[in-house]
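User: tokens in, sequence out, please.
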């Protein structure tokens, strides 16, 4: 990709055929929110609603994420939200390793453009792609590491909270810690 800007990224993504997911997508889902945010949330990949609308986290998981942001006094204007893969895996299956690999350079490019202070991985897939191939969500969520100038942490994916109420309390604690880190880094 030539010059580093949003137009270059968006152009490359909209015509991307680097993996098989282009064959079944309705829309490429790049990101939403504040392109200069201090904090970037990274999910797994678009679901049905996201694929139809071309916007990440607009379905039930997105509504819960909005509520959790509100609980720490943040809105979509304070954050940027993207996914590990930009096209919907059919039937909401996990994105396969080669699909993630094909898409990760776009996410790296997005990170360079947004330059957040904090990266929050939502769930196992984002944690594995961003933090470490051996990442374990139940063991490592809530931990922080500093890498390449970013503070990185992880918490449960909002879809996991919708399936299992007992995860809400630890996720709430993770969000409180995220807020604290944001204040510290101001
Ligand atoms: N789940 C995700 O991981 N990303 C979305 O955009 C929607 C649901």
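Assistant: Sequence out:
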């Amino acid at each position: 990709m030539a010059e580093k800007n949003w137009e270059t990224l968006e152009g490359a993504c909209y015509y991307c055929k680097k993996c098989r997911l282009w064959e079944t997508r309705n829309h490429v889902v790049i990101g939403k929110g504040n392109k200069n945010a201090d904090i970037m949330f990274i999910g797994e990949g678009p679901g049905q609603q996201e694929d139809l609308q071309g916007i990440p986290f607009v379905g039930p998981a997105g509504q819960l994420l909005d509520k959790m942001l509100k609980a720490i006094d943040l809105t979509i204007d304070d954050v940027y939200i993207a996914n590990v893969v930009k096209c919907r895996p059919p039937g909401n299956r996990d994105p396969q390793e080669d699909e993630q690999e094909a898409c990760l350079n776009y996410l790296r490019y997005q990170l360079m453009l947004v330059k957040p202070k904090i990266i929050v991985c939502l769930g196992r897939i984002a944690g594995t792609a961003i933090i470490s191939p051996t990442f374990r969500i139940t063991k490592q969520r809530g931990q922080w590491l500093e890498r390449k100038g970013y503070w990185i942490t992880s918490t449960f994916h909002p879809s996991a909270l919708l399936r299992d109420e007992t995860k809400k309390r630890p996720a709430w604690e993770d969000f409180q810690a995220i807020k604290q880190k944001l204040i510290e880094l101001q």
